[in-house]
Amino acid sequence: MTEPVVPAARKTYLQGSRPDIRVPMREVPLTNGDVVVLYDTSGPYTDPDQKTDVRRGLPPLRARWIAERGDTEEYDGRPVRPEDDGYRGRRSGAEGNGADGNGAPREAFPPRRPRRATGGAVTQRAYAQRGEITPEMEFVALREGVTPEFVREELAAGRAVLPANVNHPEIEPMIIGRNFLVKVNANIGNSAVASSIEDEVEKMTWATRWGADTIMDLSTGKDIHTTREWILRNSPVPVGTVPLYQAVEKVGGNPADLTYEIFRDTVIEQAEQGVDYMTVHAGVLLRYVPLTARRKTGIVSRGGSIMAAWCLAHHKENFLYTNFRELCEIFAAYDITWSLGDGLRPGSIADANDEAQFAELRTQGELTKIAAEYGNQVMNEGPGHVPMHKIKENVDKQQEWCDGAPFYTLGPLTTDIAPGYDHITSAIGAAMIAHHGTAMLCYVTPKEHLGLPDRDDVKAGVIAYKIAAHAADLAKGHPGAQAWDDALSDARFDFRWEDQFNLSLDPDTARAYHDETLPAAPAKTAHFCSMCGPHFCSMKITRDVRRFAEERGLAEEEALAEGMREKAEEFRAGGGRVYLPIAPGGTG
Amino acid sequence: MTEPVVPAARKTYLQGSRPDIRVPMREVPLTNGDVVVLYDTSGPYTDPDQKTDVRRGLPPLRARWIAERGDTEEYDGRPVRPEDDGYRGRRSGAEGNGADGNGAPREAFPPRRPRRATGGAVTQRAYAQRGEITPEMEFVALREGVTPEFVREELAAGRAVLPANVNHPEIEPMIIGRNFLVKVNANIGNSAVASSIEDEVEKMTWATRWGADTIMDLSTGKDIHTTREWILRNSPVPVGTVPLYQAVEKVGGNPADLTYEIFRDTVIEQAEQGVDYMTVHAGVLLRYVPLTARRKTGIVSRGGSIMAAWCLAHHKENFLYTNFRELCEIFAAYDITWSLGDGLRPGSIADANDEAQFAELRTQGELTKIAAEYGNQVMNEGPGHVPMHKIKENVDKQQEWCDGAPFYTLGPLTTDIAPGYDHITSAIGAAMIAHHGTAMLCYVTPKEHLGLPDRDDVKAGVIAYKIAAHAADLAKGHPGAQAWDDALSDARFDFRWEDQFNLSLDPDTARAYHDETLPAAPAKTAHFCSMCGPHFCSMKITRDVRRFAEERGLAEEEALAEGMREKAEEFRAGGGRVYLPIAPGGTG
């Protein structure tokens, strides 16, 4: 995994105001001498100068920054218990997925002492509100090409989050907010079959290699704590979880047996490990559950249905809602970012934008304001399945009701009739919702609704979502996004094939497709494409037009049109012929 | 190719007012006893009761309708010449693609006598303007679920086209217009390598099998005339071409050697064969060519660059523009539909919506009005490469300047950074532009810009575009589109796996993905999905909520909330437990 994504590319670093602020970027040297510098999520794994070893974890980039602030301390963490990994209290017959296949615990990462706040909030938002620009803020400012002060303002206002648990010093800081590049999250989960630690870690590095800005570890079952530890220690991107999944495992899988105490204990367990953001379905209120009764597809969120089942079983208000303020205190002590879950999101086109969904969103707004009192960083999760004409309303309401907090949506899918292609049905919705202001997109793979994604599915999902995110960046007028497109367009026009491949989201696939039609090496430098062949080429004709215009330096249309006449004579006189060879492709 | 797309589906026919109006549909029987009837483009090939034989062609469904009108007559058509198939006047060294690989002509389809008008226009538009409802109009009315009178009005107003050359009686009529289902075109071309007639025809049937509403034959090189004849005689969908491609072949590949006479002769050649619509780049005016000089990617349309080269070489106005009225007369005599080409469409994000593009669109508007004088049916072609925020302007201007004529766009791609994935970059733009009013979408395959699409690419392109078209139909509020989604959503909620597969755009892929995770046959009837497993399921909890609500017939929230309390007691009393098993997937 140390080979670069783009063989021709180099890892480069933008140097900050102090030696230990070094922001990784991907530098793509072009054959015309230009260099394009791109945002890079792939971490130290693609830097040939860094040796990585999953058994030692990544270097703790932020450790000094955290320590220097002097507002946290190490302490003896919560002891890891067998049930954290699913080895006690399991129902009989449950399948383990331990590394040896027999349920034996997976090898643990060497123990560490966690940190937490000694006093007030140690969140990036709290620092921003106090006017402090942290190294993390400067890091993301360099990464995004904006000023540190702008980053600080956005964080202070709650319009952006910088997920960075004090116990996850390994991350390369990144920011999520509508005024920054649109981000992409990839979900990963542990394998049902035995797999090595290297394999588990590799799922994360595979997703970040193709551009995932964060990952969510949605593992369940055995070894969940230990696997998460390995992932966190090796992840250069923020890691999110849904603590409810682990909590419900600890009570043998029955939502009715859940208690707030078990949930809180799970949050602390994961906080000490370094989880950067947590999905919490605190907005699924008892009175909203009946609103789903007449829906076409009811409740489709797993977390939402767990809490609905709990409310049903006890006829009590959601314990995540009733204990929200205490959770805010915990989140403030580790700098965990809220990802307020949308447990009542629509599960079909028919249910989009209904009363249940928007009732929960209103409560997300209420909770967002409460979390702000504690200096917490907050995102709001959003749908799901939404037809195109109802997408904008989701962003508008979320932005209004949640005070401009970053919106984090799953797709949305714009139709339900294409199982097997939901990375596409949802990339359409994702691009649109991001254009309207969603800050981060949770990817959907081709296996959505059908099965568990494999390596190819993860890549397909990430690429589809990088397309959606980038299309939105372009539509929002991001200058860096436009420059990237321009560089590729220029390479295309100049028939610099290698540059086209190296600038593309997936150089391997672009190159492979080109090779199928024109496999020979010289074709990579040929001044034509497979569509029109070597003798006739529309781009060639354009170059004639352009060269003429440039040589003459004529700015006015009329003058150019005049020039055309001369050009026509020159063309005929020179006997210059253009040929249209065989080969179909493209329209007209 | 006679096996159905959906093994469980049946070919069914909607019966019109006369015995020979029978509209094919796909009837999907569901396991719950419901039947869903879907639009079907796959032609007689998927009807087990019809025997098809490519060497005899499809039955001439419309032959009687055309003859009955008494306004056309058979005549001795233009003799087929060797150069029509590229066997004379070719430059030396040109590669043939004859069936034997040595340039020997391909076997011809048995000769037929063509028809043409004896007097005035024989177009569906002209009939509509006279108040006549043709069998073709009734056919599409049944197919679309609207009244024949509505079809007539839309055709008369020029807001829709029904491409149906009098020499292509084999088609199952279809309509293209913003007030009908969004349509998808697939481009096919002949192979550079020798292939059988069956193989050439199969490219068309493969595309229509997955949902292509029309195909464009963009073949070049040898056997172009003969291959087109085989395709037309076997195509149940309208066939479009770009006659300029063949015309330039006839002059040895040099645009400068083109003449209007050669072009007109090619149009008549193709008109007699039955081509239903033709892309003609009549809007590429001499004075617009210099406007492309400062573009990032100049002229990228092949037809546009041929005409620009011709204008450059002669410094004369585009002969397609100067002879437009005579072409209108020819089009009226065969009912060929105009697809006014956009030769100056943008080839990169940077060039979108520029002066060159909109100058040509204004000329398309002028030509659209002229064609209307002749009773011609007209579509306007559109881009191309357009960032999301500039998409709507394209439709708005086209609709305004071209009097509401159907817009027919290629994508548009919403970013240029993902070669290898342009079916996705463009499905985003296609869905959006169709939502805003584009009537037909020309597909883009994953090989766009890189190479020639193979069978898998064609399928990937068609499916991506069916998604885009359907997402737009939903967003436009089409009741039939919503019903299709609802049927699939219901099947998903009820865990009717076979119904989900059978209702999907690609049942094979959906089934295969499901099999990867849950291969056993019982899993197809299992009341759970691979994401949450058999014991815990969010949809199951919802069903509990819903069943309770329905049993009690309680309409009000309060009553339902009251019911929740009873439900909670029942739940605890019955010891009914819900289990959350291992298995990741999906967010929260």
Automatic annotation (TrEMBL), chains A, B:
Enzyme class of the recorded protein, top EC level: lyase
Pathway(s) where this gene product acts: Cofactor biosynthesis; thiamine diphosphate biosynthesis
GO terms for MF: 4 iron, 4 sulfur cluster binding; phosphomethylpyrimidine synthase activity; zinc ion binding
Pfam families: ThiC-associated, ThiC_Rad_SAM
Biased composition (Basic and acidic residues): 69-88
Chain ranges of the ThiC-associated domain: 6-73
Binding site for [4Fe-4S] cluster: 529, 532, 537
Reactions listed under catalytic activity: 5-amino-1-(5-phospho-beta-D-ribosyl)imidazole + S-adenosyl-L-methionine = 4-amino-2-methyl-5-(phosphooxymethyl)pyrimidine + CO + 5'-deoxyadenosine + formate + L-methionine + 3 H(+)
Keyword Isomerase attributed: no
EC number: 4.1.99.17
Residues that, per the record, bind substrate: 187, 216, 245, 281, 301-303, 342-345, 381, 408
Binding residues annotated for Zn(2+), in chain numbering: 385, 449
Free-text remark on how the cofactor is bound: Binds 1 [4Fe-4S] cluster per subunit. The cluster is coordinated with 3 cysteines and an exchangeable S-adenosyl-L-methionine.
Domain of life (superkingdom): Bacteria
GO cellular component: cytosol
Region Disordered, annotated ranges: 69-125
Function: Catalyzes the synthesis of the hydroxymethylpyrimidine phosphate (HMP-P) moiety of thiamine from aminoimidazole ribotide (AIR) in a radical S-adenosyl-L-methionine (SAM)-dependent reaction.
NCBIfam families listed in its UniProt record: PRK09284.1, PRK13352.1, thiC
Matching PANTHER family: PHOSPHOMETHYLPYRIMIDINE SYNTHASE, CHLOROPLASTIC (PTHR30557:SF1), THIAMINE BIOSYNTHESIS PROTEIN THIC (PTHR30557)
Family: Belongs to the ThiC family.
Entry protein name: Phosphomethylpyrimidine synthase
GN (gene name): thiC
